[in-house]
Fold:
Amino acid sequence: MLSEAQISDIAEALLSAEAERRQIPLLSAAYPDMTLDDAYAIQAAQIERKLAQGRRILGWKIGLTSRAMQTALGIETPDSGILYDDMEFATGTIVPAGRFIAPRIEAEIAFVMKVPLDGEVTRETVLAATDYVLPALEILDTRVERQDAASGRTHTILDTVADNAANAGIVLGTARHAPDAFDLRWVGAIVARDGVVEETGLGASVLNDPVTGIVWLARRMATYGPRIEAGQVILSGSFIRPLEYPSGTEIEADYGPFGRVDCRFV
Structure:
């Protein structure tokens, strides 16, 4: 367990790294006694500071939902982070150079809530509370190094959670659908970089059903944080591997009848 002073210091270090567009060394290596509770406490400390600066919570993200990502990190649970209002981009956006450190992209289904969610919810509760679903891209960025160059040690879920689940941005499509209009397990996307298809995936890769992630998040937040509020956007988890997107790259995700979403990094 970390002390309150350590949690505060790490939160400040992460906020400084974000502002200065640089990465800091692995937290899991520097603080070997860190627990998952500590990592979420570091995340929460950043929320307090960002809200005090005038930012607003747009919603929440769920990460590490695919079996492949969980196996890679040696875990059996997703993680979550916060979406802030200054992270939102519309489809077709040109992302300015220097906005991120080393951006990556994931394709997801976003849920927009019409009523709050809290506690021991069920799949039916989530669907009833959802206003609409839509295609989305998540922009990932890491303020913590993904690998230590000297030792070869890689990041863990503790580094990811403390670093706001590696979240940096969200690009929303324009198509809106009732949550029961599609079998979300079969909603997928063809993701292309500069016109070349890089990844394809289906919603079933997300815990077998993207709704399952929302159930998990509501239950986790009953322990760790505030509830999901009406109007908030929830990224349910990626059904493709994270893809690197350096400057000069154009990304397009074609969800077929579900819609499409794209952006460009300059």
The CA atoms of residues 140 and 167 lie 5 Å apart. The radius of gyration is 17 Å.
